[in-house]
Design goal:
It is built from 13 helices and 22 strands. With about 450 residues, the protein is of the alpha+beta class. The longest helix is centred in the middle third of the chain and has 25 residues, at about 250-270. It is globular and about 60 Å long.
Length: about 450
């Protein structure tokens, strides 16, 4: 839908990837440089409008929604520079991770760790704390060495551990509340190979051996299929090679036919006939077989996600995660809920970012999903009660019901972040209803 603002500027209604959020901005801008971003922010202030930047819309919350000025970073893309002495890459904030990963690989470089999808923009991913799984390597935000930020008065700040360290400590996971990220400098390393080993395993075995599996592997994760005792585990570790990628046909069968095509059919059936879900889950959880392959990092860490869903994810102290997962299993078992999506478990080391979900503690993530269009409130509410009882912190880009008062209890540096926000954006130029809920007014 296209609407017309009071000034006569035609704007489109914006929707996120999952279809859970719609926004109708007063105007849209697509700046091509940091100076044009600063000008757009100053003009918004003159007109009394709020400002938000949107990326690919992969956040499930309304964190990027606005009725003011919507900044689309489509023209803020590409690599500014590669510093091989410092082993860093400086990239424009609107660059999709897919393009960044491919460009780095062509240069013989790679990020150390990454999440499992590549559709987000760099700024969107770091602003919400997007992460993969890792024993020693953390989220994308934890790999930032410097950043460029346009603040509410149009000032352009550069930040690092040495320059404006108090801003750097917060803006690496800034929620879009401190300003507009225009460039990010990330640590990189020479391109390497990962050996992926995927293996079915029972939930009881995975939970009993979780600490050992975490300790013995650089990157460990698993998916549990509710209504069954079946899990699919994935272990990624560095390899001296040679490269041994999945065959074209076998890769298509696993990643497209089973993980997307048949999974789409199974979820469509489950939404139409919920009582069929447990039987479908038993079949689906047995369809994925053990396999191993070796490839460059982004081809191992990431995979296509074509089945649309809604998601909630909580970060727990790692030592509490298996107890919480058993509680989720018991809750589903005694309830009438029918859950068609697997539950995902990943890990991260502690980091020093104020609002990172792994701030100050070794972390395990438990993520729950449901097929888009399936009523999710009862399931997510029940899981959220379990997660919050274990000191859980919700992912900033995924569905949850926590507010500033509750979040301040689980983030020791919450006040540090909000004080910096008061200084950088006293008039709340970058606020919206969602940020008022999670950060306070």
């Amino acid at each position: 839908m296209t609407t017309v603002s009071a000034s006569g500027t035609a704007t489109r209604a914006w929707r996120n990837w999952a279809g859970t959020v719609t926004a109708r901005p007063a105007r849209e801008v697509s700046p091509a440089s940091v100076d044009e971003v600063a000008d757009a922010v100053r003009r918004a202030a003159e007109d009394g409008l709020r400002v938000k930047t949107v990326g690919s819309g992969h956040s499930f919350t309304a964190i990027a929604a606005t009725d003011g000025v919507l900044i689309r970073p489509d023209l803020l893309t590409g690599i500014r520079r590669i510093d091989r002495a410092a082993m860093t890459v400086t990239v424009e904030s609107g660059t999709p991770l897919r393009r960044l990963n491919a460009a780095l690989a062509r240069e013989g470089l790679s990020l150390t760790n990454m999440g499992d999808i590549m559709e987000q923009t760099v700024a969107g991913a770091v602003s919400t704390g997007t992460h993969g799984t890792g024993r020693d390597s953390g989220s994308l935000s934890a790999q930032i060495t410097a950043l460029e930020l346009v603040t509410a008065d149009g000032t352009v700040l550069t930040c690092s551990r040495a320059e404006r360290p108090e801003v750097f400590a917060a803006a690496r996971v800034g929620l879009g509340a401190l300003g507009v990220l225009t460039a990010v400098t990330l640590a990189v390393e020479p391109l390497f190979l990962l050996r992926a080993r995927e293996e079915p395993m029972s939930l009881d075995r995975v939970t009993a051996e979780f600490d050992a599996l975490h300790a013995e592997n650089e990157h460990f994760e698993f998916y549990w299929f509710p209504h069954t005792d079946n899990c699919n585990t994935k272990r990624n570790n560095r390899s001296a090679g040679p490269a041994d990628p999945p065959g074209a046909f076998s890769g298509w069968v696993e990643d497209e036919l089973l993980s997307n095509g048949l999974f789409q059919v199974a979820n469509t059936l489950g939404r139409a006939v919920p009582r069929a879900i447990p039987a479908v889950a038993r079949v689906a959880s047995r369809a994925l077989s053990a396999r191993s392959y070796t490839d460059i990092p982004y081809k191992v860490f990431t995979s296509p996600r074509r089945v649309r869903f809604v998601e909630m994810e909580y970060a727990l102290p790692r030592e509490a995660a298996m107890a919480a997962l058993h509680e989720v299993r018991a809750m589903i078992g005694r309830s009438p809920l029918k859950v068609s999506f697997p539950v995902e478990v990943r890990t991260a080391p502690a980091d020093d970012i104020a609002l990172s979900t792994a701030s100050g503690r070794e972390t395990a993530y438990i993520a729950v999903h449901l097929y888009r269009g399936t009523p999710h409130r009862a399931y997510f509410t029940a899981v959220e009660r379990i997660m919050t009882a274990h000191g859980g912190r919700p992912h900033w880009g995924k569905l949850h019901t926590r507010d500033a008062e509750r979040l301040a209890e689980v983030y020791p540096r919450f006040g540090e972040f909000t004080a910096l926000r008061d200084r950088l954006d006293p008039e709340r130029r970058f606020a919206n209803d969602h940020l008022r809920r999670v950060l306070g007014s």
